[in-house]
Amino acid sequence: MPSWTHTGGRKQARMDSKKQESQLFFVVRVNPYASLEESDEYLNEATAVQDMFPCKKYVPHLIPDWIVDVAEDVEPAQFDPSKLKFISFMREGDGDEIDGNIMVERAVELKANFGLSDVPTLLGEHGTGLKTILAELQGGWRYIVLTGTLLQDADGYLCVSCFFWNVDRWVLCFRRLCDGWGKYDRLVSCE
Q: How far apart are CA 40 and CA 53, in angstroms?
């Protein structure tokens, strides 16, 4: 199952088979000293790699117009929606908030790294799937974060998709990864 990533502002196409769970790891690096032919070749390869991002294949309609790039993505998970758990990524001593990059690392450790391509399954066939979410998560500024897909906005910030409770329903939104993530936010996990 491929996993995709982007490192900083520098990009390079390569595969690393040592990624956990035999996942492929792709990075794209721009070489400012490349010839025009090399640049054209790079752009063709980079476009081919980008077109393979799962969210661009399965849920392109969920990617907002203000998103300019997909930086990291995971294949849709195979799971039973009735066995979902909503777990905290916070650890003792973290305080009230942690950095988004730490949250993403912990999501991978906890096997709670769902992505944007999982939204249709999470919502269910008739859009009622999230009604199974625990009542205590409904209300306040609580986010259910989907860390498996990192998107880049026009200002260069990485963003994650997440659900938040808005009066009487869960709403899909996008927040910058650099925003604080706290003790009331949750990751999606499955038994």
A: 21
Query: What DSSP designation does 42 have?
Result: H
Q: What is the distance, to the nearest Å, from the Cα of residue 117 to the centroid of all Cα atoms in its chain?
A: 9
* β-strands 84-87, 158-166 pairing: unpaired
The pTM for the full model equals: 0.71
CA–CA gap between residue 109 and residue 88 (Å, rounded): 12
The predicted-structure confidence for 92-105, as pLDDT tens digits, reads as follows: 999 999 999 999 99
Q: Which helix (H) or strand (E) holds 4?
A: strand 3-4
pLDDT digit string, tens, across residues 36-57: 555 555 445 544 555 678 999 8
